[in-house]
Amino acid sequence: MAGAVIIVIVMVLVLPVAIMFAGAVWSAIFGWANGTGDDAPAEGEAASK
Fold it and tell me: Does the predicted TM-score (pTM) go above 0.70?
């Protein structure tokens, strides 16, 4: 019975936090990897809005 209670506590409290944290880390790594900085407009080019 104690094992079932521990599993429920992990599923309800720990697992969602771990999933959200993993998603934040994944997004940060993916954004850092794709952030080349070459999408800035050239010197004479007008920025599109």
Answer: no
39 domain-assigned: no
pLDDT value at 48 more than 60: no
Residues 6+ apart with CB under 8 A from 47: 41
Residue 48 located in a structural domain? no
Rounded to an integer, the average pLDDT of 17-27 is: 96
CB 47 within 8 A of CB 41: yes
Structural domain for 12, as ranges: 1-28
Query: What CA–CA distance (Å, rounded) separates 31 from 49?
Result: 22
Torsion of CA 24, 28, 31, 36, to 10 degrees: 180
Write the CA distances from 42 to 9, 13, 28, integer angstroms.
54, 49, 27
